């Protein structure tokens, strides 16, 4: 048996902008944003907030049903059903159905119970796994998917990243003074904070022989998770964990292979500065970078999956997406290649970088067929 | 794979490498008593939520029992834990601080602990571990052996990782919690 790889066989994104990966991509490419101002009174908060919230009604429990919708849409792209006993569900979320906390029992709130409920509704028989590594969860969940496939425990992994926004989350970020009162401005000199958002995003991976990857198919080629070992609620000032994650996923690749690095780019002062340092330390300062937070806000547990999907769509379209909100005044100490306009590329791979509370950082390198 | 050490903590006692670790307290006070008796000298312990205190004490006692130099930055050791309740206890505490009206006092010091992976970060920070840190949430169902085997199988696929603190850390309330941590060499 030859080298095996984790291949993408379907994906779907459900966001305030659109229902569907390609539909989302087209809106992003056109420069649309899901982020809008919401009055404090909407959620009985101390201040107004900027957020990307799905307007169409979603039945409670909200996060569960957002996720199930996205997974079912992804499954519907396949030629037939996946074998239930040979398919594992990996859920990426930070807060699950926490919006129900004041009137729900523990059985409804535990993230594992949420995942079990989803697996049951999908007819899957293997016990699902939840990856809850704060805002890195969506990238970590894909790394876990790849590893599960390599161990031979299953042939298919459904990775679903989901976050429903709530009073619980927004009040917490407000208490941290981490939110921008306006549309976020990633990597700009006048950036002041992040916007929050919600989404469900699904990628279905299948174990495949490396020789069985078509030119237009995507493979998760390398992934790494590293800790800053510095602080639980602030990133390393020298981008330690992000640098080490980038170094690990680039160990058998060169920077000129990359179309771009899709960075975390939350638009908080510390995050974007840290990432510029990590990118430089990893030898990637010449590679185009971009943040998608201006389009959706920070979708937390969904971010790593959603941003991987949009990055695949962008490379498929020969495009490096603009960083919406970047005002042209670079506000980080290392000269990353970022732009407010869409650019073109003929490269066939990208890196998705992400970091979060708890000092965690994660990166994956995705490669489009043939390049193997 | 080699098991270099193992610790089990419940509200009623501590077992370290198959020996009873002496404690005079039970429940939440057990964790504080262990903090004092192990002389960790790490005041951040008192800022931690109960889940983090549990994971911190378990890792601290486990690592103190090992014959290895500590606190040297290293990328080759991972911290990979699983939990059922995750941070739900702290979620409920935080929710109680944001009731509408005069009882609205959201605090970043509480909010930060409403993420289940913070405990892995606390252990990484304490020990200067720059390697992988991960938190998995699952319902009960796997045996201890199955859980450790599966976590190890996932963790050691990272070629840089040569050893790991792997196990279970779960906190429901002061009378219902447990930690089972292994130090495993690849």
Walk me through the structure.
The complex is a heterodimer of chains A (372) and B (186). Chain A has 372 residues and is an alpha/beta fold. Chain A has two domains: 4-209, Thiolase/Chalcone synthase (Peroxisomal Thiolase, Chain A, domain 1, 3-Layer(aba) Sandwich), CATH 3.40.47; 218-368, Peroxisomal Thiolase, Chain A, domain 1 (3-Layer(aba) Sandwich), CATH 3.40.47.10. Chain A has ten helices and 15 strands. In chain A, a hairpin with a 3-residue loop joins strand 14 and strand 15. Chain A is globular. The two termini of chain A are 16 Å apart. Chain B is an alpha/beta fold. Chain B has one domain: 3-Layer(aba) Sandwich (Peroxisomal Thiolase, Chain A, domain 1). Chain B is built from six helices and seven strands, in the order E-E-E-H-H-E-H-H-H-E-H-E-E. In chain B, strands 3-2-1-7-6-4-5 form a seven-stranded mixed sheet, sandwiched between helices. In chain B, a hairpin with a 2-residue loop joins strand 1 (2-10) and strand 2 (13-16). In chain B, helix 1 runs parallel beside helix 2 (50-64) and helix 2 packs parallel to helix 5. Chain B is globular. Chains A and B meet through helix 4, strand 5, helix 5, helix 6 and strand 9 of A and helix 3, helix 5, strand 5 and helix 6 of B. Strand 5 of chain A pairs antiparallel with strand 5 of chain B, so a sheet runs across the interface.
């Amino acid at each position: 048996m030859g080298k095996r790889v984790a291949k993408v066989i379907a994906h779907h994104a459900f966001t305030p902008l659109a229902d569907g990966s390609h539909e989302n991509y087209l809106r992003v490419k056109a420069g649309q944003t899901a982020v809008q101002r919401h009055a404090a009174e909407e959620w009985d908060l101390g201040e107004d907030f900027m957020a990307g919230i799905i307007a169409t009604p979603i039945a409670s429990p909200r996060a569960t049903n957002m996720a199930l919708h996205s997974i079912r849409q992804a499954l519907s792209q396949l030629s037939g059903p996946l074998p239930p006993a040979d398919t594992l569900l990996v859920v990426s979320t930070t807060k699950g159905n926490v919006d129900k906390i004041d009137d729900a029992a523990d059985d409804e709130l535990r993230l594992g119970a949420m995942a079990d409920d989803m697996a049951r509704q999908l007819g899957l028989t293997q016990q699902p796994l939840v990856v809850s590594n704060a805002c890195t969860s969506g990238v970590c969940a894909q790394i876990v998917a790849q590893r599960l496939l390599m161990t031979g425990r299953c042939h298919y992994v459904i990775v679903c990243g989901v976050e429903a926004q709530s009073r619980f989350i927004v009040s917490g970020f407000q208490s941290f003074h981490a939110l921008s009162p306006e549309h976020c401005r990633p990597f700009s000199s006048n950036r002041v904070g992040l916007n929050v958002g919600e989404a469900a995003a699904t990628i279905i991976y299948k174990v495949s022989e490396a020789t069985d990857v078509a030119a237009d198919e995507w493979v998760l080629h390398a992934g790494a998770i590293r800790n800053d070992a510095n602080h639980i609620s602030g990133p390393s000032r020298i981008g330690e964990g992000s640098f080490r994650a980038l170094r690990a996923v680039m160990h058998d690749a060169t920077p000129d292979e990359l179309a771009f690095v899709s960075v975390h780019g939350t638009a908080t002062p510390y995050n974007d500065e840290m990432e510029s340092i990590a990118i430089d330390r990893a030898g990637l300062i010449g590679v185009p970078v971009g943040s998608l937070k201006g389009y959706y806000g920070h979708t937390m547990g969904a971010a790593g999956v959603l941003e991987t999907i949009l990055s695949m769509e962008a490379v498929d379209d020969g495009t490096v997406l603009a960083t919406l909100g970047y005002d042209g005044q670079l506000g980080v100490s290392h000269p990353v290649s970022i732009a407010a306009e869409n650019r073109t590329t003929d490269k066939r791979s990208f890196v998705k970088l992400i970091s979060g509370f708890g000092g965690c950082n994660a990166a994956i390198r995705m490669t489009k067929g043939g390049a193997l | 794979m080699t098991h270099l050490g193992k610790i089990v903590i419940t509200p009623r006692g501590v077992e370290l490498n198959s020996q009873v670790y002496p404690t005079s307290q039970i429940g939440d006070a057990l964790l504080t008593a262990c903090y004092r008796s192990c002389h960790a000298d790490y005041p951040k312990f008192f800022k931690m939520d109960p889940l983090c205190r549990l994971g911190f004490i378990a890792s601290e006692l486990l690592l103190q029992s090992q014959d290895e130099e500590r606190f040297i930055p290293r990328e080759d050791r991972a911290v990979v834990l699983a939990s059922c309740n995750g941070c739900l206890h702290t979620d409920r505490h935080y929710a109680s601080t944001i009731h509408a009206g005069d009882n609205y006092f959201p605090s970043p010091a509480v909010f930060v602990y409403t993420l289940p992976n913070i405990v892995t970060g606390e252990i990484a920070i304490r020990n200067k571990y720059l390697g992988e840190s991960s938190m998995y949430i699952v319902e009960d169902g796997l045996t201890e052996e199955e859980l450790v085997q599966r976590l190890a199988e996932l963790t050691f696929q990272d070629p840089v990782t040569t050893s790991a603190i792997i196990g279970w850390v779960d906190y429901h309330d002061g009378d219902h919690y447990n930690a089972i941590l292994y130090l495993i060499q690849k």
